[in-house]
Amino acid sequence: MTREHPCCLCPALESDFKNNVCADCGFIKKYTDERGWIYFVRGGIGGVHKTFYRKPGNNKEKACSIFPWHQTFVQAQIDLNKTAKARGWQVV
Ligand SMILES: [Zn+2]
């Protein structure tokens, strides 16, 4: 069950959050699709956030064009959670 919003004081709000899923609320950070691409939220220039992707065997992180920039990490993560759910992406 994917949660769209994080709990209060959710460790997922930290950009260096090491675990992929919050033990308290199940808020998820990373997903993968059928091609094995990894999707995750990252900050960009000017403090904005959006979903980036990484292809298997390639460490380059690229901005994902289907996602808009958001003012906060949480907004961008909620956007990713909704899209992941709609597209059937799996938790990494
Ligand atoms: Zn949480």
List keywords for this structure.
five-stranded antiparallel beta sheet; 1 helix; binds zinc ion; alpha+beta; 92 residues; 20% strand
Give the topology string: H per helix, E per strand. Answer: EEEEHE
Query: What structural category arises from helix and sheet content?
Result: alpha+beta
Total strands: 5
Q: What's the end-to-end separation, in Å? A: 14 Å
Bound molecules: zinc ion
**Major sheet size, sense and barrel closure:** 5 strands, antiparallel
Number of helices: 1
- Unreliable stretches, pLDDT < 50, 5 or more residues? none
Give the DSSP E fraction (strand runs of 2 or more residues): 15-25%
Q: What is the rounded Rg?
A: 12 Å
Walk me through the topology.
Layout: E1 31-32, E2 38-43, E3 49-54, E4 62-63, H1 73-87, E5 90-91
Antiparallel strand pairs: 1-2, 1-5, 2-3, 3-4
This protein binds zinc ion (ZN).
Brief write-up:
The model has no long low-confidence stretch (mean pLDDT 87). The protein contains one helix and five strands; from the N terminus they run ββββαβ.
Structure description:
The protein is an alpha+beta fold and 92 residues long. The protein has a domain at 29-91. 16% of the residues lie in helices and 20% in strands. Strands 4-3-2-1-5 form a five-stranded antiparallel β-sheet. It is globular, with a radius of gyration of 12 Å. The mean pLDDT is 87. Bound molecules: zinc ion. The site of zinc ion has 8 residues, from loops. Residues 6-7, 10, 12, 22, 24-25, 27 line the site of zinc ion (ZN).
